[in-house]
Automatic annotation (TrEMBL):
<dbReference type="InterPro" id="IPR029044">
    <property type="entry name" value="Nucleotide-diphossugar_trans"/>
</dbReference>
<dbReference type="InterPro" id="IPR011004">
    <property type="entry name" value="Trimer_LpxA-like_sf"/>
</dbReference>
<comment type="pathway">
    <text>Glycan biosynthesis; glycogen biosynthesis.</text>
</comment>
<keyword id="KW-0808">Transferase</keyword>
<feature type="binding site">
    <location>
        <position position="106"/>
    </location>
    <ligand>
        <name>alpha-D-glucose 1-phosphate</name>
    </ligand>
</feature>
<keyword id="KW-0067">ATP-binding</keyword>
<dbReference type="GO" id="GO:0005978">
    <property type="term" value="P:glycogen biosynthetic process"/>
</dbReference>
<dbReference type="InterPro" id="IPR023049">
    <property type="entry name" value="GlgC_bac"/>
</dbReference>
<dbReference type="Pfam" id="PF00483">
    <property type="entry name" value="NTP_transferase"/>
</dbReference>
<feature type="domain" description="Glucose-1-phosphate adenylyltransferase/Bifunctional protein GlmU-like C-terminal hexapeptide">
    <location>
        <begin position="305"/>
        <end position="408"/>
    </location>
</feature>
<keyword id="KW-0321">Glycogen metabolism</keyword>
<dbReference type="InterPro" id="IPR005836">
    <property type="entry name" value="ADP_Glu_pyroP_CS"/>
</dbReference>
<dbReference type="Pfam" id="PF24894">
    <property type="entry name" value="Hexapep_GlmU"/>
</dbReference>
<keyword id="KW-0320">Glycogen biosynthesis</keyword>
<feature type="binding site">
    <location>
        <begin position="186"/>
        <end position="187"/>
    </location>
    <ligand>
        <name>alpha-D-glucose 1-phosphate</name>
    </ligand>
</feature>
<keyword id="KW-0547">Nucleotide-binding</keyword>
<keyword id="KW-0548">Nucleotidyltransferase</keyword>
Length: 420
């Protein structure tokens, strides 16, 4: 999509918040922040927010990092270095650093922006788009920014339409007939509903559009407030709702999808949700279209050979059915069903995988039977391991989710080998 000063996105900076660990993903985030977690065969979660910004025409981006950021920073440096400085394009990495007093950490989502006010000033933009870096979706931000300008709002909040009974897990917007936000409640027991649908509520996506001058003033005031938690959802947005003009933007208005497809957005913050979102991609027609060349998800494209399948005997056949197998994989005499394998996974004879999400560089030895598993990067699965048949046995050595998905890391394999 060509750059144009006529597009509001050309006068906008996308500021991605990517510092949270994502502790609900258990050991999967022991060595990496949640936005750096692998997804979809070759991507990282953060690629979706960044790709949406790029495809929307935004060429000025910044990403705030904090918890175990090395994997994320390395991914950005390898896969997102195609911006041209001479065209005033960039993606800045903004780690938490000692800038004010003796604090070296971002104290909240709003503080992550406030500590970089001087840097954002140097960008010379009119608007700032605040994004969470840990959700899976496709969205044209230009549409949301344009609504923000046309309504004259102080803040525009991206919102999902969810069932009222599910809204208790979100920040929920109360709105009037024009979608002006009248209340903002964090995980309410009795969520307000949409005026035209008493069974639905509007939940915050953690996406905000501000005029930069307006937000700058609010951030400076918030930094001086000793009672603030310095968070958009807890502090700034509720204050603007009560004293200014806050507008809701419905995700269905800017979701990128085929005309008959549902609006797709996923928080893959638990092992169950992460496993399902990956496995859903193996469906005949997945709701998330990664094959759409008009709205691609950009990432670091590793130079890999094609996937290879070898052996062809009834008890020793390299095969994959209803699965996604990435480049560099060698499937040697293994039966694979409804699974997703990332790059450079190697499997061996007489093994079977079903409902398996296998991260890069994992190795599956012979005679393994693995069902409904998430296998971390670089894990060496020993010969004869059986997982997914007896949850009690699995839970002795591995992390079993409430939905019955078994997470396997190398530390768990090593502990099992030692009998600990």
């Amino acid at each position: 999509m060509p750059y144009s000063r006529n597009r509001l996105s050309g006068r906008t900076v996308a500021f991605v918040l990517a510092g949270g660990r994502g502790s609900r993903l258990k050991e999967l985030t022991n060595g990496r922040v949640k936005p750096a977690v692998y997804f979809g065969g070759k991507n990282r979660i953060v690629d979706f927010a960044l790709s949406n910004a790029l495809n929307s025409g935004i060429r000025k981006m910044a990403i705030a990092t904090q918890y175990k950021a090395h994997s994320l920073i390395r991914h950005i440096q390898r896969g997102w270095t195609f911006f041209r400085a001479e065209r005033n394009e960039f993606l800045d990495i903004l780690p938490a650093s000692q800038r004010y007093e003796e604090s070296t950490w971002y104290r909240g989502t709003a503080d992550a922006v406030a500590q970089n006010i001087d840097i954002i000033d140097s960008y010379d933009v009119d608007y700032i788009l605040i994004l969470a870096g840990d959700h899976i979706y496709k969205m044209d931000y230009e549409i949301m920014i344009r609504q923000h300008v046309e309504t004259g709002a102080d803040v525009t909040v991206g919102c999902l339409t969810v069932d009222r009974k599910e809204a208790t897990a979100f920040g929920v917007m109360g709105v009037d007939a024009t979608d002006r936000i009248t209340s903002f409640l964090e995980k309410p027991a009795d969520p307000p509903t949409i005026p035209d649908n008493p069974n639905k509520s509007l939940a915050s996506m953690g996406i905000y559009v501000f005029n930069w001058k307006f937000l700058r003033e609010r951030l400076l005031a918030d930094m001086e407030d000793p009672n603030s938690s310095h968070d958009f959802g807890n502090d700034l947005i509720p204050e603007i709702v009560s004293k200014g003009k806050a507008q809701a933007h419905r995700f269905t208005e800017s979701c990128v999808r085929h005309p008959e497809a549902p609006a797709y957005w996923r928080d893959v913050g638990t092992i169950d949700a992460y496993w399902k979102a990956n496995i859903d991609l193996t469906d005949f027609t997945p709701e998330l279209d990664l094959w759409d060349r008009d709205w691609p998800i950009w990432t670091y494209s590793e130079n890999t050979p094609p996937a290879k399948f070898i052996h062809d005997r009834p008890d020793r056949r390299g095969s994959a059915v209803s699965s996604m197998v990435s480049g560099g994989c060698i499937i040697s005499g293994t039966e694979i069903r409804e699974s997703l394998l990332f790059t450079h996974v190697k499997t061996n004879s007489y093994s079977s995988l079903e409902g398996a999400v296998v991260l890069p560089n994992a190795y599956i030895a012979r005679h393994c039977q693995l069902k409904n598993v998430v296998i971390d990067r670089g894990v060496h699965i020993p010969e004869g391991l059986v997982v997914g048949q007896d949850p009690e046995v699995d839970a002795r050595w591995f992390s079993v989710s409430p939905g019955g998905i078994t997470l396997i890391t190398q530390d768990m394999i090593d502990a099992r080998a030692r009998g600990l």
